[in-house]
Automatic annotation (TrEMBL):
<protein>
    <submittedName>
        <fullName>Haloacid dehalogenase-like hydrolase (HAD) superfamily protein</fullName>
    </submittedName>
</protein>
<dbReference type="InterPro" id="IPR010237">
    <property type="entry name" value="Pyr-5-nucltdase"/>
</dbReference>
<dbReference type="InterPro" id="IPR006439">
    <property type="entry name" value="HAD-SF_hydro_IA"/>
</dbReference>
<dbReference type="InterPro" id="IPR023214">
    <property type="entry name" value="HAD_sf"/>
</dbReference>
<dbReference type="InterPro" id="IPR036412">
    <property type="entry name" value="HAD-like_sf"/>
</dbReference>
Amino acid sequence: MTEDPTKRLPFSASFKSNIIFSCSVIPILSLIKMEYDDRYRQVQRPNYDCLLFDLDDTLYPLSSGLASAVLGNIQDYMTERLGIEQNKIPDLCNLLYKNYGTTMAGLRAIGYDFDYDEYHSFVHGRLPYENLKPDPVLRSLLLSLPIRKVIFTNADKVHAVKVLSRLGLEDCFEGILCFETLNPIHKSSVSDDEDDIEFLGSKRSSTASNGCHQIFDIIGHFSRPNEGSDGLPKTPVVCKPSESAIKRALEIANINPHRTLFFEDSVRNIQSGKHVDLHTVLVGKSQRVKGADYALESIHYLREAIPELWVNDKICEVNYSGVGVAVETSVTA
């Protein structure tokens, strides 16, 4: 009996196949199918189910000036709202950022209490958002990827939404993991809960008898010989690069780290992400560092650096012992 040349070969339901045979009679069809299955086993399931993106200085370049403006606003807040002496601020900012991930987390750790919304409004409310322009190139790249895409930022929701809107990317992501996601309530102190986030140290900032927080002298702490981070108070703020914070964010968004690509401009965050089994992409650098699986000088180079993300609707040509088979596969990357 002659084989119908238009008959479809029943392959895995994980992708759609449109098989066109170049001759009307195909011998040993089962062997051909076995060889096809072996050669294309690697495309039956993509490497990644989710792309997890940092926001600031990752989706737009550092040259936009927002990062320097944020630093200036933080320093103004420390002077105007917290009454910190101006000559101490540069060293204090450096130590807090280095040891706690963000200046805000460090300020809370050493004893300063303030309203989170007020802080974010002060620090982000005066940023030059007009420096951010719509990015049709990045928008096209993101929309061409049929993969789950999520934002993960230490910033507050208002800032994240505003940045995405300015870039023209507000509809490119499934959701946003932001400051409010990991810090839904204002915590005045670190709890004794075993699930509490412990970023650094084991002590708490002490409280005076009048109920006011005493300020831990972190500058004095590190000025003493042989003092390290072990003696620092903990922070109630949950944020990157804490591995516990990253794990919590992944749990909230139901993200499998083993099948997720994590894009970040921060080397510390990249290394923490690697420690929790994320695949990592360092953005803003052309050379990889420890913990980074990829390095992109710009997020615009995504397709060139990781072309395997674009395996959708690829036409593959294979010859089996002189028999031409054109296979059209639609693979969800």
